[in-house]
Amino acid sequence: MKPALLLIDLQQDFLDPANLQPPATLLVTRAARVLHVCREKQIPIVHIWTTVERENDRRLPHWRKANRWMCVAGTPGHKTPEALRPLPGEHIVHKTGFNAFSSSELDKCLSVLGCDSVILTGLHLHACVRTAAVESLERNLRVMIAEDAVASNDPIHAAATRRWLVDRSVTFAPFDALDYSSSETKASRWAHRSPRDSGEILFEVENATPKEIRVFGKSARAAWTLWRRKPLPARQKFLESIATKLEAASDELAKQIAIDLGKPIRHAREEIQRAAANVRDVIRRAEMLSRPKREAAGLVCHESLGVVGIISAWNNPVAIPLGKIAPALIYGNTVLWKPAPASARITKILLRLFCEANLPPDVLHMVEGDHVTAQSVAADENVDAVTLTGSLAAGHAIQEICARRPVPLQAELSGNNAAIVWDDTNIASAAAQIAWGAFAFAGQRCTANRRAIVSAAKLEEFLREVTAATAKLPWGDPLHPETEIGPVLNAGKRDELERLVANAQSEGAAQRVIRPFSKQAGEAWAKAGAYAQPVIVCCDQPAHILVQEETMAPLLVVQQARDFEHALALSNGVRHGLIASLFSHDKQLQKRFLSESRAGILKLNSATAGVNVTLPFGGWKASGLGPPEHGDSDFHFYTRPQAVYGASDYLDG
């Protein structure tokens, strides 16, 4: 097989809008890496540009209607970023609309090169990339899309496009995982490397097939008819057994979490205890919430949904799935569960505990795989509702599937959480809490303190204190009982953080970069694993990617605020809205903060990290879809109300 790399519309006018997902900075960085690798491998390169001439106006109708001139030849907007500029000998194909094949230029180019396949990168996935893929298929070319190097300003449309193209044999995968050396499509397998030693492959996971998912879905549907009729006390007894067995298996589970995910063992033990507490809270609430309610006109009852598709994240491989499975089961549902592939061995321990607790056959099924499997679970006709914890991109993909069917969706989609630190607080205490909230577990939790917004008068004091507090947090082997900061999940995540910070420095966006562990970072253990060096960055550009994006890495961004109104604007000025906190004892400031903060969880005088399972957990804006998790919210998601007329004596009978 001989592929060609097509870079589509990576031009400044298309990159400038702020609503690209992923953001332009990430897209350009990833596309530049793809370009570099293809050049090294001597894969032919074709740059495809939209080129508009004012003298010969061939703009698309919607551009004319909006009086929009973009990608005009000779203007800065027509150019590509420096990292993506063509080298001598690389081909450039110009187009005026969506279709890169609209002239014979690209056909001739691919024919001369002798290419039988294409690798696509660029934007927009739902428009020009899609058109290039379809036209390539019509020419019997194998089509591969580097999913980490394409973007769109219409994420739901892009998710639908991706699903549609996959159904037509287009391959989506991260560029490093694309197989462009063979004309055969290999079985989809996912290799997980040790976060503690990147050279060691711990295990591999293979995607469940749609046929397997259908079989499991049907059996879960059949089991539901019996499980939903099982008396509530029997379901409560089963879940109490799970909580007890979970606590008994704490050492085994915690060690496996530390080995497979790099989560410090002390954090893994806390997660397991929290999961057991969550299960018991679910048991307690079910007794109160499940009773029919009498109204003047009749009864309000609640029935189970049926089969619930659960898609869980890797960073809390016990607490997140148990926080979904327990309420699903207690309210009479059965479960089709797709855990994150990195947690495969941990999942098997949990399944053993369910078996030991004598869960009836087919009430809980687990299928392994990546995002492709997750989408197949959401699309299965036997699944009646979906609950997801994952990235914003994953949320858009599952949202599109659930809306098309349609079935209810609950999605927790990460956070970019800010703590405001104001003049009247104890700066040293606030800094210590924020340092732990930002860097413990290497910042790999959606509740992590990603931003600190500090009064300008206290900025220098805060930086001194947060640097000192960070340096006191033990960084190292997650199996060591004292470790607070372990590795990130993989070397790719580590390297991407380094590139983001380096780019911010070169652009002048990072006024200050503080690395409290710079000496330890050169040691052999740190280099062997995915140990991302904890970093504190001062960045006062509110639109910069470091401020706007959740990194899921050990990064704390510090911003200074002119006044409290400015601080609130900075805190609210991201698309996420999971958690916000305020360090201040001023009652008036607290009142303003509680009234004006746009987040689902608010905290006073506490870092954003950490939550209690008895309270609702859910984000606003891009941090969540559907009802929150935990507390009484579980009842409202995992059941559906039913009004019953003419049954006034039903409760008394």
Q: How is this structure best described in words?
A:
By secondary structure, this protein is an alpha/beta fold. The protein has 3 domains: about 5-185, Isochorismatase-like (Rossmann fold); about 200-230 and about 295-415 and about 630-640, Aldehyde Dehydrogenase, Chain A, domain 1; about 415-620, Aldehyde Dehydrogenase, Chain A, domain 2. Helix content is about 40%, strand content about 20%. The protein contains 22 helices and 26 strands. The chain has a 7-stranded mixed beta sheet, sandwiched between helices. A 6-stranded parallel beta sheet has the order 3-2-1-4-5-6. It has a 6-stranded mixed beta sheet with strand order 13-12-11-14-15-25, sandwiched between helices. Helix 15 links the parallel strand 16 (about 415-420) and strand 17. The longest helix is centred in the middle third of the chain and has 25 residues, at about 265-290. The model has no long low-confidence stretch (mean pLDDT about 95).
Q: Can you name the CATH architecture of the largest domain?
A: 3-Layer(aba) Sandwich
Q: Structural class per helix/strand content?
A: alpha/beta
Helix content: 25-40%
Number of helices: 22
Q: Which stretches are poorly predicted, pLDDT < 50 over at least 5 residues?
A: none
Major sheet: order of its strands? Answer: 18-19-20-17-16-22-23
The figure for the number of domains is 3
Work out the radius of gyration. Answer: 26 Å
According to DSSP, the number of beta strands is 26
CATH domain fold name of the largest domain: Aldehyde Dehydrogenase, Chain A, domain 2
Q: Given this structure, which CATH class of the largest domain is correct? A: Alpha Beta
